[in-house]
Amino acid sequence: MDVVYQFEEVARLPLPGDNCAVAIRQLNAGTAIQYENQILTLDYTVMEGHRFAVKAIAPGEDLLSWHLPFGVARKPIQPGHYVINETVREALSVRQLTFAVPAEPNFADQIAPFIFDEENFLPAQALPAFTDTRTFMGYRRHKDRGVGTRNYIVLLGTTSHTGSYVTELATRLQGIWKNDSNIDGIVPVAHTEGGTEKPNNVDLLLRTLAGFMVNPNVGAVLVVDYGNESVTNKMVEAYAREHSYPIDEVLHKFVSLSGSFEEELVKGEALVREWLSTVNAMQRTPESVSHLRIGLQCGGSDAFSGVSANPLLGWVSEHLVRYGGAASLAETDELIGAEPYVLSKVRNVETARKFIELVNRFKERTSWHGTSAEGNPSGGNMYRGLYNIYLKSIGAAMKKDPITRIDYATEYGELMKDGGYYFMDSPGNDLESIAGQVAAGCNMIFFTTGNGSITNFPYVPTVKVVTTTRRFQLLANDMDVNAGQYLEGKSMDELGHEVFELAIHIASGQRSVGEKAGHAQVQIWRNWQQNDASQLETLLHAPVPTGVPIAIEDDATTMVNPLQFSFTRHRDRQSSDHIGLIVPTSLCAGQVAGMITKRLNEQGAGQPELSRFVTLAHTEGCGTSGGPAESLFSRTMIGYITHPMVEHCLLLEHGCEKTHNDYMRHQMDVMGVDASRLGYASIQLDGGIAKVSEKVEAWFADRLIAADPVEKVTVGLEGLRIGIVSVGAINQDASEQLGRLTKMIVGAGGLVVVPENSGLLAEDSFNQQLFSATHVGPSIAYGEHVRHNGFHIMETPTKHGVETITGLAATGVELIIALVGDRPMQTHPFVPMLQVTSDQVVLQKHKQDIDLVLEGTPSFWVDHILERSKEILEHTYVPRLYQQGNIDFQMTRGLFGVSL
């Protein structure tokens, strides 16, 4: 007789009366389940976290979880039938599954639009306050700042341009506080914002930076800019004072960088060292838990997030609010579909109106970019059973306990001034949302996860709560709380009390698991490009670059430089360098990839076959719109995977992102790239940070053992792959000589790529060397791997310097020549940048940063550039700013990218 499972052994109903159950483990097709008075037989294999019907559902009838609809049946669905929509079917099609999925969906993502009944609205009463008192050991700040759970010195980059400065400064200062037990660390806050002309998120950014400064976990803060960006220190200070942020109650200094990178680092080190004794003198004292402000987050969610982990946070936040503390629910798009639940208890009608206004504004903004707020769920979400935004939202909303009311609905980063339960506008992108909660004053983050997200913030401790015991056991070194105990019979009250006690201990200084791992990232809500839908159709149908080189005029007078370069040849390619590359498939995998490459380089792994290991940490792949923005991202990443300098490459996924390893494999198949030679690893599926690090190191070791020897070859100009950029004012002589250089290399059969936004293309002295046409459009897309040598112009959707260099390097160039008419550019992680100038003002300020001064007779400048290029390509000279650590990497989202 076949085995018949009891329902409780294999599945759960979110609430009694739902018509769809959640499988608590993978159940094969044909599995028989005793449910109430019937035996269900599964028609298809149902993955863990996916749903099957427990009642007959007629066409047009709602599918229910938590008594709320998440879709409508398209055909009759019988008890035991796997329920699946088209989006999940497509998401599973790129996964490497060993079983079949239904050929057609049986339900559609369709629910009735929410209509707020303001006429019959009834304000909810506040929960009765607890009469007892609980305390934690915290850092008492000024009354307008609150109480800190940590005591950090923060190095804050006002815009993305100073990100590499604060990062390098923090690196140089690591360890100097080790004997100062009251200082928790010196941490950089580098981000992607404020570096473009007239960004649309200026007010949001100013509010966030001001909030970062006064967060109670900050003992001192150094705020750094260059003074000429779209967002400056002066603007941050003016905003903070105008809006009554207590910046004078925190030890701080605004610094504008004006000299060379190394000089400014020395000044920064000296300034921070002066603060150490003052910050160390700050002491923990017993403080009421009413001073706790907790941010509630979920990431890498699964079908159990709304059953175990999120209700647990609802319990904890309900208790904290009754003690007088505050909790912040965020992620606007992850509440679409859960409005009836969220607004079932609200303090007043004004708060309800504000919530609806924020949701509608979010929907409108995403529509300007050709996408929908309902497109939030990632590939990892769907793989783990969250079929659509409605199902994801219903579960996410459980971070508010049913008895708790919404007290306030606020803007992103708006300060939390009183106790209570808050809703804060933000995207579903975890890191972007967390940054807003930190700016609002949260001194702790509670983060639930089904897949096992490893997210942490640099100076606010994160408590990570995983949904199931099996996942907790897999990732025990990276998770704090196993909410799966609730699924196994522990009461929510018992589990809630345990977590509340843990929260008090962590608030008092006990390090969370994430703090012990040393893993932390920051991302502010990224700028959006469109202000309305007026350009949408034009942009969607813009011409696509052909990839064909742009013809340049033949010129019999063009000189041929006989200079030769020593390269190596391996397999079917020749290049100037060989590196081991780790490509994070999303932002959450970036720092882990960096930790692994750092260890590999410290070990000297791969030498002399590889010069070094590199990672490309970025902010994309998760919580952003699909379509053109996602295509741009995958194209650029594949450009790096196929880069001629990359000898061995491994893709590292977080595990729950949209652009996971299987997604990237599929994209490479579409583009005709051999994906079999790459390595693949998953932080979540391979067992966490430590285990995945071991796997990655072992893969590279195996590849190096099996590698064929390389052959030394000598090439002329035909072997060069050069990118040319410019920044600031352009010297006419330099422009002309770069035109000559371009013509010389292209004429010999080499490659030159110039970004579309370069001022060189507007200079007659450059253009006249190459072609007679007054305007030449892009020949390749942003980040596109060049398949045919010659002269190319690369599409650039923004004017951001680092975003431009990031796309340019992905084309396959092996050296970037930067003509500097302002301050030098931030350099690339592995494609060397030669900074040249003929400007004496630039030279006076940045002499230590410039690699080549163009002086004397201009006709000799091309030879000088080629000679210094030879030194770089043959590794006898390392560009100065790369040596000093002024390195950055930032993906553009193009004209359509918007946070979800």
What does this entry show, briefly?
The protein is α/β, with parallel strands linked by helices and 900 residues long. Helices cover 31% and strands 19% of the residues. The chain has a 7-stranded parallel β-sheet, sandwiched between helices. A 6-stranded parallel β-sheet has the order 33-32-31-34-35-36, sandwiched between helices.
Describe it.
Keywords: Lyase. Belongs to the UxaA family. Residues 18-89 form the SAF domain. The protein is an alpha/beta fold. Helices cover 31% and strands 19% of the residues. The protein is built from 27 helices and 36 strands. Strands 19-20-18-17-21-22-23 form a seven-stranded parallel beta sheet, with helices on both faces. The model has no long low-confidence stretch (mean pLDDT 94).
Describe the secondary-structure layout.
Blueprint: E1 4-6, H1 7-10, E2 11-12, E3 20-23, E4 32-35, E5 38-41, E6 51-53, E7 62-65, E8 68-73, H2 86-93, E9 107-108, E10 135-140, E11 147-148, E12 152-157, H3 163-173, E13 185-189, H4 202-214, E14 218-225, H5 233-242, E15 251-256, H6 261-280, E16 284-288, E17 293-298, H7 305-322, E18 326-329, H8 339-342, H9 349-367, H10 379-383, H11 389-396, E19 408-410, E20 420-424, H12 430-440, E21 444-449, E22 462-466, H13 469-474, E23 481-482, H14 484-487, H15 492-507, H16 513-517, H17 536-540, E24 565-570, E25 573-575, E26 579-584, H18 590-603, E27 612-615, H19 628-641, E28 646-653, H20 661-671, E29 679-682, H21 689-706, E30 711-715, E31 721-728, H22 732-748, E32 751-755, H23 764-767, E33 790-794, H24 801-810, E34 815-821, E35 833-837, H25 840-846, E36 852-853, H26 861-873, H27 880-884
Parallel strand pairs: 1-4, 12-13, 12-14, 14-15, 17-18, 17-21, 18-20, 19-20, 21-22, 22-23, 26-27, 26-28, 28-29, 31-32, 31-34, 32-33, 34-35, 35-36
Antiparallel strand pairs: 2-3, 3-6, 4-5, 7-8, 8-9, 10-11, 10-16, 24-25, 24-30
